[in-house]
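Quick one, tokens below:
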């Protein structure tokens, strides 16, 4: 009995199930989901100074701004060196750490504030 029930269950799983057709709607139908997201593809331009920008759906220009990672790293390294040079007593770890933190924050803000014009 057990074997016959398992055989019936296995046969039922191998039969094709009724699945909906995965077809695109007609071109005149309103776009929903993935098609709506892919409807507008911005065209990127590059200015003479190497900044990428694009025109949005509202005909305004937008540019890709940096998130400040490079400024953070460079500022942190420069700040660590400056803090180590300023703190001349003892182990100098405190000056290095404080200088790295201050330099990283300053470098990140400087890079993020650069406008793309």
């Amino acid at each position: 009995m057990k074997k016959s029930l398992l055989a019936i269950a296995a046969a039922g799983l191998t039969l094709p199930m009724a699945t909906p057709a995965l077809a695109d709607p007609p071109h005149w139908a309103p776009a929903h989901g993935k098609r709506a997201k892919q409807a507008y593809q911005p065209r990127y331009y590059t200015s003479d100074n190497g900044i990428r920008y694009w025109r949005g759906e509202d005909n305004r220009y937008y540019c890709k701004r940096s998130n400040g990672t490079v400024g953070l790293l460079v500022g942190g390294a420069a700040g660590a060196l400056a803090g180590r040079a300023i703190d001349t007593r003892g182990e100098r770890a405190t000056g290095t750490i404080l200088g790295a933190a201050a330099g990283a924050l300053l470098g990140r803000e400087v890079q993020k504030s650069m406008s793309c014009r």
